[in-house]
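haha ok so turns out i had the wrong file open the whole time. this is the CORRECT one, sorry everyone. sequence first:
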Amino acid sequence: IKPAVQGCQCIAELTTMDQEGRPCVTNSKAVTADMKDPSGMDVPTQVQIKSWGKLEISYVPKVTGDHRLEVKVNSQQVPGCPFEFDVKENPVLCKHRLRVDTVDYRTEGYSGVGELDGPVGVAVDKDGNIAVVEQGNKRVQIFDADTGQSLRSFPVDGEKPLGIDRPLFVSVDESRDVMYVTDKSAHKVFAFDLDGNLKFDFGSEGQNDGEFQNPEGVTVDQAGNIIVSNAGNGRVQVFGPDGTFKRKVGTVQGGCACGLALTHDGHIAAAYDSAHKVFAFDLDGNQMFDFGKEGQNVGEFKSPEGVTLDTAGNIIVVSQGDGRLQMFGPDGTFKRTVATVKGGNPHGIGLTPDGYIAVACFAGHRIERYRYM
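then structure:
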């Protein structure tokens, strides 16, 4: 039984074997899974065959606490039953002090250590810590992913104002110890070292090569190339490690390019919120595939915003419009809904090494973590 978290789809795996201890095929209809929550209420389960001799029992626990699972194959109880396990609360990393007397998120009191004012971008560094861009405080704050403790922070505007007004997404180049932050209003990308010192910036407002119209998403490939999406004109562009323009990768007419992620085969997955789709391009600019459409059914989007990948190459997307966090296969095939984000107006997402998805909730002024593995 894999670690279980309240409100998320969770997994228990079953391997069936013959009398000689070899994996054997079992019809999923021959397997029953009876689960009870702490109050004795039934928890719905679903059994699916995953591979030869391996089945998966999926469920979504509604409450925390001790649960019990009894599994039978051909009406015979599986050895070790009943299995008892604890469902954990879905952890929230941090949250500002809520004030019911105001609707302005820039209220005094959201700028302290560990507090957030309009978090938008999220990136996970090589140590598993979570870097968060705050639009309200114009700073980057680094959190311990396990405890939610603020480790350090730095202002993106520095001692000498850089013209940064609307910082958005962030990406960490682990091999070069550089952090890139896009700014939608300045039409630039800023490169900082991990202590917050500005190294360089590049870009200006315009439609020519190397220019931006409201840059949003940013990611880095293994060679250190910087890939940036444009909300204003739907373009995705590639720059060298020093910010020198290299090429234009893809353009979706009428689209608003937001979050970016690199697939395992080197393609670029870009969320286009106004098109309600995710497009995949190769580095030569050829569109490989796209998936999604506007709607609230499985596999559909309401303004997709953040994109990240897991170690298996699955593409994880969060929709800003309805808060749904969905997982798709490497080819864009819908796999499952992970959770619905509670904090409001989700933007950037990132995957921690221990299998949590960190989501920046702009309206809720917090980071939420959801276990999906």
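Confidence is low (pLDDT under 50) at residues 92-109.
again sry for the mixup
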